[in-house]
Amino acid sequence: MGTTTGRRGNDGKSNTRVGRFGHRPGGAVGDSVVIRGRPYGVWGGSSFSSSGTGKSSSPPPVLKNAEDLAAFIKERVSNVLVMVGAGISTPSGIPDFRSPGTGLYDNLQKYNLPYPEAIFDIDYFMTDPRPFYTLAQDLYPGINYSPNTTHHFLHLLHLQHKLQIIYTQNIDGLERLAGIPEDKVMEAHGTFTRASCTRCGRRHDGQRVKQAIVDGDVPVWCDEPKCKGKVKPDIVFFGENLPSEFWDYHHHYLPFTDLLLVMGTSLQVYPFAGIAEAVSTHTPRVLINRTPAGTIGSRPGDLHLTGDIINNINTLVEALGWQDKLRHIQQQQQHTNKTKENEE
Ligand SMILES: [Zn+2]
């Protein structure tokens, strides 16, 4: 395996891959960086008032609406760091964990949990894993829910060589189902695609565990001699650490990020929400969410696009002139879904 030479940004195709994520360090953090053939921070002529982002000391450009954002993305951006939460999956029919009344926590009465969050509490799981396994039957990627326009837009952002990485709080796996490459998605709260023993830590085949859970053949037991621990999909529970790669944003992404896009999250859960605060003050931050969230709005370069998320994405796609490209991706997805249905 070779080493990377400062390629921690998005070149669309030629990152040297080390480990699961495409931007693992080979060279030292201080390497000089050239992104898409030009030194970082030099953008040339532009209609925007500032001369650059990232390491530049100039103030961030002022983005007033979706049209400004679209022009900025087209002219000046090659590394969008995206943060997403439950709000991008509610249009797919997945209940938001926190919305009163319709939220997932409010609909868990049938599990007789002592408190709603217990379903993701590791100590509770060790005592009674049935509620989580039952929930997993519903949430397992590729069974009940499909990606929506927001996921397709993120895929398009990748195909246009604009996407640096997506940090997702979601465990529904819809980013992967939308076709976004694995090394472009940091699943901060874990994934159903892998599973491990809660006692000895041994990795178990994700597909086998999925099949057992879907068939109701639970608990899934570790088959390591003398272990007999319960096997759990690698979803991060309360009381568990986030994947170590989560912290890569400090050195591997943010120094090269030229736009932060936050979508469908209320930015209440830390350490995830901390990424938005760690972004350089010279980098514009844009929130696309039903309501204002976190500290976004407190800096001059911040923009809110509040209201219906799908409407906002469609407006942005139109301003970018990417409608045909988005439609093409959606048609491909429908074709993939139909092929899968026919196979089943
Ligand atoms: Zn074990």
UniProtKB/TrEMBL annotation:
**Tell me, what is one Gene Ontology molecular-function annotation carried by this entry?**
histone deacetylase activity, NAD-dependent
Keyword NAD present in the record's keywords: the answer is yes
- The residues that the entry says bind NAD(+) are A86, G87, I88, S89, T90, D96, F97, R98, Q169, N170, I171, D172, T265, S266
Q: Which reaction does it catalyse?
A: N(6)-acetyl-L-lysyl-[protein] + NAD(+) + H2O = 2''-O-acetyl-ADP-D-ribose + nicotinamide + L-lysyl-[protein]
User: Which class of enzymes does this protein belong to?
Assistant: transferase
Q: GO CC terms on record? A: nucleus
Kindly indicate where the leader peptide sits in this chain.
none
Keyword terms of this UniProt record: Metal-binding, NAD, Transferase, Zinc
- Tell me where in this chain the Deacetylase sirtuin-type domain is found: 59-323
Under which name does UniProt file this protein?
NAD-dependent protein deacetylase
